[in-house]
């Protein structure tokens, strides 16, 4: 449920999902390698967790590495994995200090064993925290997530555990990576691009979208407040008609 921030006079979305875009272009503008942009971008994620919690956001989900990002250069992928390694380890101490619960969604099979171990450790250590719910999408693709969910359901049908006619939205939801997380209320994509890039297509069915030209490394508290201000001007009808 959205919370009202009295100081800002704004209704704050309960769940904000973010596509962290523009790291490489930000670095290029500064005549630096793309990898520098990713390192700066990871620092902004850390900063935004404090901001999100302070504003009253309850769930904050970021797109860190997609199933398609493996197509990038070996150097860039290697740097991204190194950043993830460090971030996942650092995140444990900071999350425990700030009462943040962390989850990771996406395919873990293609990730190295040490990264999977760090993910499992982060989730286990923070599972009882009751503050901000932080979700990181790593090696995540929305279509892949839906395919995996359908495969699990199909196996249950094959084994006679469920009948085909019993399959409904709730069952599909229960088999997604996000089964314990409410759908996002607001999606933010930075850098001026206006597409989902295979990010949470099922979950974003009735989400409000906010696109900004600001590159992710330049995103800050003021920019998040701007997004919330735009969110407050939206009329969320979920397919219905607002009564006059």
From TrEMBL:
Keywords: Magnesium, Metal-binding, Transferase
Cofactor(s) required for function per UniProt: Mg(2+)
Binding, Mg(2+): 21, 208
Source species: [Lactobacillus] rogosae
Record's protein name: Isoprenyl transferase
GO molecular function: transferase activity
Cofactor note (record): Binds 2 magnesium ions per subunit.
Binding site for substrate: 22-26, 34, 38, 66-68, 70, 72, 189, 195-197
PROSITE patterns in alphabetical order: UPP_SYNTHASE
Gene3D superfamilies xrefs: Decaprenyl diphosphate synthase-like (3.40.1180.10)
Family (UniProt): Belongs to the UPP synthase family.
